[in-house]
Structure formats: structure tokens, C-alpha cells
């Protein structure tokens, strides 16, 4: 059974940084595409970034390019999202997803609030 646990969300000021983590279990993490998605209150779920094995090819939503970095540690079955220069519009609950579809199995999420 796929199990994903996100952590690292917090309240941060605009311009600040956070690193989100997602610990995975129940499947072969090292050979799996992994995705971060987010959902702000009252808005639909949106794709943020994907990383694909084995070469670690990454892709990003335009609005986060140059600010967010997705990475993975296959030895620890952990996915990361380093977020820099955070903006108020980045406020959302962030989820990691197994696979490429935003509708895939995801964890309980971690809340990121960017506010002064």
C-alpha cells in the first residue's frame, strides 16, 4: 500500500525559504516518478513539480521556476521541495504524489502559509 507522509510546512514571511519533505513507503520509490502538488483554499489542486528517475529529470510550474527545487534521496525513500523567495501566492497545502498525475495517491499534506 502506498504511504506518503509530508512535513516541513510552516508560517513564513514573504521572501523566506522552506524545505518540504515526503517520506514514502509501500512501493519501489527509486523507480517511481514523484510529483508535488498544492491546493490553496477554494482553489483546485495544481501541479507544482515532478522528478523522474533514473536521471532525476525535473520539471516545474512556470510560477515557481527558479525559486523551487525538487530532489530525492532514494536511499531514504524521501522526496524534497526546496522553496526559496516564497510569495503570498505560494500559500497552500502541499502534497507529494506517486506518479505523474495530480490525482494520484497522496499524503495528508503539509501547510505552507506565506504572510507578513
- Count every beta strand, where a strand is a DSSP E run of 2 or more residues: 10
- Name the beta content range: over 45%
Kindly state the percentage of residues in helix: under 10%
Mean pLDDT: 96
Q: Alpha-carbon distance between the termini? A: 40 Å
Structural class: mainly beta
Radius of gyration: 13 Å
Largest sheet: 6 strands, mixed
Order of strands, main sheet, comes to: 2-10-9-4-5-6
Q: How do the SSEs run, as a string of H and E?
A: EEEEEEEEEE
Describe what you observe in this structure.
0% of the residues lie in helices and 48% in strands. It has no helices and 10 strands. It has a 6-stranded mixed beta sheet with strand order 2-10-9-4-5-6, with no helix packed on it. It has a 4-stranded antiparallel beta sheet with strand order 1-3-8-7, with no helix packed on it. A hairpin with a 6-residue loop joins strand 4 (34-39) and strand 5. The model has no long low-confidence stretch (mean pLDDT 96).
Keyphrases for this structure?
116 residues, mainly beta, 48% strand
Concise account of the structure shown:
The protein is 0% helix and 48% strand. The chain has 116 residues and is mainly β. The relative contact order is 0.32.
Strand and helix map with partners:
Layout: E1 3-7, E2 11-12, E3 18-25, E4 34-39, E5 46-52, E6 57-60, E7 68-73, E8 78-83, E9 92-98, E10 110-114
Parallel strand pairs: 2-10
Antiparallel strand pairs: 1-3, 3-8, 4-5, 4-9, 5-6, 7-8, 9-10
Amino acid at each position: 500500500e502506498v504511504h506518503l507522509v509530508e512535513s516541513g510546512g510552516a508560517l513564513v514571511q514573504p521572501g523566506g525559504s522552506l524545505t518540504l519533505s515526503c517520506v514514502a513507503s509501500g512501493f519501489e520509490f527509486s523507480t517511481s516518478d514523484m510529483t508535488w502538488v498544492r491546493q490553496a483554499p477554494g482553489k483546485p489542486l495544481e501541479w507544482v513539480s515532478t522528478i523522474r528517475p533514473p536521471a532525476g529529470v525535473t520539471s516545474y510550474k512556470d510560477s515557481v521556476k527558479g525559486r523551487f527545487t525538487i530532489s530525492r534521496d532514494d536511499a531514504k525513500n524521501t522526496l524534497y521541495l526546496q522553496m526559496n523567495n516564497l510569495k503570498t501566492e505560494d500559500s497552500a497545502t502541499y502534497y507529494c504524489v506517486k506518479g505523474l498525475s495530480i490525482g494520484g495517491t497522496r499524503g495528508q499534506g503539509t501547510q505552507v502559509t506565506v504572510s507578513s
